[in-house]
């Protein structure tokens, strides 16, 4: 689900940042969760939100929030899981699991907006075609310096030539930039996804210094 | 400055006059954890009370159960503002464990598998006020709720009821445990709302 | 809800206390000596506070407890943080 917020005072943000959304109940009880910024443009901030079963904040944001409601947000936040144009001319490998694509989409969009010519590749693992976030936006960004490889873990679209199933160490090796090209790697997904992928990347010969991860609480 | 979010109640329910100030009733039992859940097996479980002379008194799981398991129904109050009423528990009274322990010092540090600690005055553990709990609501304690055994001190905020309990050390001064070092109250009476320092 | 997160999630809480947000800074674990960005810590958000543990040895690096009118910040598990000049 994408949540579009009007934030007149939004200062702009770097690609990969998040916001904290804080909800307050009438009795003063508060719940705060972090959500990645997908895009922002002149005071309009787009968040990508996955509804977690038994969640306290995401079901509210997905099901209850209506146009015109006021939400308390804090951001942009984060100084680690960021991509900045011109920072390096090394290629960039993005690896997303599920809604972990949100900050990586922001990086791909920033890369295109900056006309940065460093090579970007995205491997995007998702359950089914219906679960893809930002499909059209990612397709529009694709070109000589940005490619997307989908991994469908449960069900692929009609006419899909590849296999269906979880990402493996071997499929990761064949779809990502080789270690000798020294890519900077951004991994975002569930805790299990991020840890599995990071371990494979180390195993394939990438340096721990080049692997940045961000985990979210879902399965 | 915060404002109420339209339509947001959170995982919280209606108030009740049996609730201490600032608490809200819940039906489900939330899981709070400050670290990984340790894997503790009853066949290797070893409970230790270390008294002021440094003597260690040990109980295996079978020895603990042999002291006598009793049924208790108590309310629990978590410092994160939820309370759960009339919970049925089974456990061994700490009076039984302290029967043959020389304890002149006034304070106890509870220690858990996984490294968690919390401090409690000794008198708050005696006279039928505290148990080593092994079952809740008719089921063996789930590891995420502190199984196989946790401390149960229901008249204090629930962080004092240390999960994965492995022992108690009698001590002369009221040294702070884990949360007490990080801002939570040294004693933690929910009826006086002793939440923070 | 026992899935731990990582230190990225600390940015909001720490940005209220420390400027700049230190999650990208290298810090050293007092227990095992591991030096890593704070963002790489294991964070348990569903406790009575935020607890950040070392990804290498599980030692508590930092804890943040929110009271109504104050925040308790412990960095007791970090022997040093490398701050930029």
From TrEMBL, chain B:
Pfam families: Oxidored_molyb. It comes from Jiangella asiatica. Residues 1-23 are annotated as: Disordered. This is Sulfite oxidase-like oxidoreductase. Residues 35-179 form the Oxidoreductase molybdopterin-binding domain.
TrEMBL record, chain C:
It holds the Pfam family DUF6510. It comes from the Bacteria. InterPro entries: DUF6510. This is Hydrogenase maturation nickel metallochaperone HypA. It comes from Jiangella asiatica.
């Amino acid at each position: 689900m994408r949540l579009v917020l009007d934030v007149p005072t939004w200062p702009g943000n770097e690609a990969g940042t998040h916001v904290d959304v804080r909800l307050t109940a009438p009795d003063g009880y508060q719940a705060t969760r972090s959500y990645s910024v997908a895009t922002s443009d002149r005071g309009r901030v787009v968040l990508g939100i996955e509804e977690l079963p038994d969640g306290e904040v995401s079901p509210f944001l997905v099901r209850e929030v209506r146009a015109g409601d006021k939400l308390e947000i804090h951001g942009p936040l984060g100084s680690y899981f960021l991509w900045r144009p011109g920072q390096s001319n090394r290629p960039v490998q993005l690896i997303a699991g599920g809604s972990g694509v949100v900050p990586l989409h922001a990086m791909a969009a920033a890369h295109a907006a900056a006309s940065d010519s460093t090579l970007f590749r995205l491997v995007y693992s998702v359950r089914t075609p219906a679960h893809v976030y930002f499909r059209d936006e990612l397709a529009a960004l694709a070109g000589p310096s940005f490619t997307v490889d989908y991994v469908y873990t449960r069900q692929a679209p009609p006419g899909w030539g590849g296999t269906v199933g979880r990402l493996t160490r071997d499929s990761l090796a064949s779809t990502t930039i080789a270690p000798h090209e020294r890519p900077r790697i951004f991994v975002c997904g569930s805790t299990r996804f991020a840890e599995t992928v990071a371990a494979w990347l180390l195993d394939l010969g990438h340096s721990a210094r080049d692997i940045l991860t961000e985990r979210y609480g879902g399965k | 400055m915060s404002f109420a979010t339209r339509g947001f109640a959170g995982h919280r329910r209606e108030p009740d006059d049996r609730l201490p100030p600032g608490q809200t009733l819940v039906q489900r039992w939330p899981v709070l954890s400050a670290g990984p859940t340790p894997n503790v097996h009853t066949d290797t479980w070893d409970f230790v009370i270390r008294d002021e002379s440094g003597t260690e008194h040990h109980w295996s799981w079978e020895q603990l159960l042999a002291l006598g398991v009793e049924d208790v129904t108590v309310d629990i109050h978590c410092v994160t503002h939820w309370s759960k009423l009339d919970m049925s528990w089974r456990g061994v009274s700490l009076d039984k464990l302290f029967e043959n322990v020389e304890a002149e010092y006034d304070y106890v540090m509870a220690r858990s598998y996984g490294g968690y600690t919390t401090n409690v005055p000794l008198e708050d553990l005696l006279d039928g006020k505290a148990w080593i709990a092994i079952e809740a609501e008719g089921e063996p304690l789930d590891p995420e709720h502190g199984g196989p055994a946790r401390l149960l001190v229901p008249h204090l905020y629930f962080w004092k009821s240390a999960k994965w309990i492995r022992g108690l050390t009698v001590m002369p001064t009221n040294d702070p445990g884990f949360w007490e070092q990080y801002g939570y109250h040294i004693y933690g009476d929910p009826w006086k709302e002793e939440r923070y320092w | 809800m026992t899935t731990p997160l990582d230190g990225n999630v600390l940015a909001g809480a720490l940005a209220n206390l420390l400027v700049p947000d230190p999650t990208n800074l290298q810090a050293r674990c007092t227990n095992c000596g591991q030096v890593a960005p704070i963002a790489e810590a294991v964070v348990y958000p569903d406790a009575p506070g935020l607890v950040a543990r070392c990804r290498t040895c599980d030692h508590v690096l930092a804890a943040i407890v929110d009271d109504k009118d104050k925040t308790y910040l412990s960095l007791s598990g970090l022997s040093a943080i490398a701050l930029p000049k």
